[in-house]
Amino acid sequence: MLKYQEVANSLEAHIREQQLAQGTKLPNVEQLLNEFHVSKSTITKALTLLEQNGVIYQVQGSGIFVRQPRRKGYINFHKPKGFTDDLEEFCVTSEVLSLEIQPVFAEIAKHLKIDVGSDIYYVKRLRFANGHVFCLEESYFPIKHVPFLNTEIATGSLFHYFAQALKLTTGFADNYLHVIQLDNDTAKLLNLNSGEPALTTEQIIHLSTGEPFDYSKVTYHYKNSQFFMSINK
Amino acid sequence: MLKYQEVANSLEAHIREQQLAQGTKLPNVEQLLNEFHVSKSTITKALTLLEQNGVIYQVQGSGIFVRQPRRKGYINFHKPKGFTDDLEEFCVTSEVLSLEIQPVFAEIAKHLKIDVGSDIYYVKRLRFANGHVFCLEESYFPIKHVPFLNTEIATGSLFHYFAQALKLTTGFADNYLHVIQLDNDTAKLLNLNSGEPALTTEQIIHLSTGEPFDYSKVTYHYKNSQFFMSINK
To answer: What is the pTM of this model?
Structure first.
């Protein structure tokens, strides 16, 4: 973990442990420099990260303040890394319905910027929070980025595996959201009825090099999932 | 407009006009310094803004690259300022169904951090893109921040009015999303049937001082709206 992330984590832990209310003024940059014994740019980076994550807000000429902790049980749409951390108050588990190497067809190849017919891992999973299904996920990973995958790995957090075992560093992601009526097959998997509502997302996740490495379609159970977004200026 | 915003706008306009493809390498910081004759921190701020808005990505030690322009016709969930700019390829219009000053009830007062019973503007609008309804919006503004509003103003972009006439500077926003089945009344307003799907958002928008000034509930027409989110590391 980088120094500024350590500082950010330490500040966030302090806010949460002390249960500081929104609007509570935090130490200023000078005071943080004395407390953490790091460079000013490290403090600045830590504050930017906390601001992006909706933990604090900064008012020019006035100071640094606590933002309200987001409601519990909401999936945070900001982090391109899966839900295991977002839903930390839940026990998140996955059931792998399908996992295979297959040649990629044109639509997915376009999103992943790879040749049609080249090999990808296709993974279809049901995901559960405290035993309740909250989404169906279909993911496509080019084997040039993800050379090995199996059911045991996919039963856990794929993003931890990518980061820790494959040393992949995620960069940015594009997310497209639609609301639909469920078809029969998907409804059955989610224990819902055909025609009931669902939020679907198409997500293209890129490595920090800018190469796309994950194209995923996720269909959320509308009764078992809700979402949070923090918007920053 | 601040200098770094001008630089950012100019760079974005260049990318769009030249129709540069994703992955196209842009001039480096040194070259941008020579081109714009501004300070390095202005360039850095402009690049951070463009990165946040999903226009570019930066690869450490490698350079600055173009990101794919998002698909047309998607509402960008990132900007706490209404849709008039997001749906710029459409003609966005509004029909004001209700606009009145009323005493605020407890649930909304809590979100806006004002006393129960204090005065707020309540505005209910249907919003249209190219004549097709895409959402029903109910907003609550404390009169201490929005002392005047009328139907003519609310028929246009409220956020332009807030920024230009009232000089309000928006800071951050919290967004909570749910997928529901429409009730009879809302369905009728959206030209849909009771029980059909909808995405609803609860948005609390804060001024740059951290004070909440807008609590809005928006119900989207699931056939006439789709959404984009850019996620950055």
So the answer is: 0.88
